[in-house]
C-alpha cells in the first residue's frame, strides 16, 4: 500500500479579508514524503518559489484593483475637494497602517 503522505497534494494559501471584501489565493503544491531525495527537495523548493511569486503578483493586482475602486468611490461621493487622494502620501504609506490626521 502506498503512503498517502507522499501522494497527497498540499496547498499554498493566502486569505484576504478587509472592509467586507474577501478573496482566497490558492496554489496547489505536491507534498514531499517523509524522506525526500535531494533532487525532490530542490524541485519542491523551486516550485514553491514560483508559486509564491505568482501569488504575490496576483495579490498585488487584486489590491491595486481595490485601491482604484476605493479612489473612484471617493471621487464620486459628492464631497468634492475633501476627497482628493494625496497620491504622494499614498505611495509613501503603501502597505502601512496610518492614522488619519
Largest pleated sheet? 2 strands, antiparallel
> Roughly how much helix do the residues carry, as a percent range?
40-55%
Q: What's the order of the H and E elements?
A: HEEHH
Strand order of the largest sheet: 1-2
Which structural class best describes the helix and strand composition? alpha+beta
Radius of gyration: 21 Å
Taking the alpha carbons of the first and last residues, their distance comes to 64 Å
Fraction in beta strands: 15-25%
By DSSP, the count of extended strands is 2
Average of per-residue pLDDT values: 79
Dominant shape: elongated
Figure out the total of helices.
3
Which segments are poorly predicted (pLDDT under 50) over 5 or more consecutive residues? 1-7
What does this protein look like?
With 101 residues, this protein is an alpha+beta fold. The protein has a domain at 4-70. 48% of the residues lie in helices and 20% in strands. It contains 3 helices and 2 strands, in the order αββαα. It has helices at residues 4-7, 38-75, 87-92, and strands at residues 9-18, 21-30. It has a two-stranded antiparallel ribbon with strand order 1-2. A hairpin with a 2-residue loop joins β1 (9-18) and β2 (21-30). The N and C termini lie far apart (64 Å).
Amino acid at each position: 500500500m502506498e503512503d498517502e503522505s507522499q501522494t497527497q497534494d498540499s496547498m499554498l494559501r493566502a486569505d484576504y479579508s478587509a472592509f467586507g471584501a474577501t478573496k482566497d489565493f490558492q496554489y496547489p503544491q505536491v507534498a514531499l514524503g517523509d524522506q525526500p531525495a535531494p533532487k525532490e527537495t530542490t524541485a519542491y523548493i523551486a516550485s514553491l518559489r514560483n508559486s509564491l511569486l505568482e501569488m504575490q503578483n496576483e495579490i498585488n493586482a487584486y489590491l491595486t484593483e481595490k485601491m482604484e475602486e476605493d479612489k473612484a468611490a471617493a471621487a464620486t461621493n459628492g464631497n468634492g475637494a475633501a476627497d482628493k487622494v494625496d497620491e504622494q502620501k499614498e505611495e509613501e504609506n503603501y502597505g502601512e497602517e496610518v492614522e488619519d490626521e
